[in-house]
Amino acid sequence: MQMVLAWKLSLSEIGEISQEEFLEGFKNLNCQNLDQLKTLLSASKEELNNGDNFKEFYLFSFKYGQGTENDLKRVLELDVAIPLWELLLKDRFPLLNEWIKFVQV
Question: What is the chain's pLDDT, residue by residue, as a tens digit (105 residues)?
Fold first, then answer.
């Protein structure tokens, strides 16, 4: 759920949220309390069942894993990519474990 929230708030760096990102993100989502946040997250999780929405989420996750604009790379380090794949693809990609073993060789 943390990644879904990061996606919806358009956060830029893993583990950090600026005051501006927080305020603007919740303002843009029209989310003003915890009950609205729970509803938003539940609906957002359902959105990911749509292939186009999941693709957008996956691409966001890649950029999010890269870090800030000053530190953008063309690839993710394996220590970042593997946990992201495990989080995002565990129920979508049946060969995930084999893929992870392959890239670790």
Answer: 788 899 999 898 888 889 999 999 999 999 999 999 999 988 988 899 899 999 999 999 888 887 765 555 677 888 888 999 998 998 889 999 999 999 998
What DSSP line would sit under 59-95, residue for residue?
Answer: HHHHHHHH-SGGG--SS--HHHHHHHHHHHHTTT-TT
* Residue 63: half-sphere exposure toward Cβ, Cα within 13 Å: 12
The residue whose two tokens read 């989502």 is 29
Is there a contact between 79 and 73 (Cβ–Cβ < 8 Å)? no
Q: What is the pTM of this model?
A: 0.78
Task: Report which residue type is found at 80.
Answer: V
Please tell me whether residue 31 adopts helix, strand or coil conformation: coil
DSSP state of 56: H
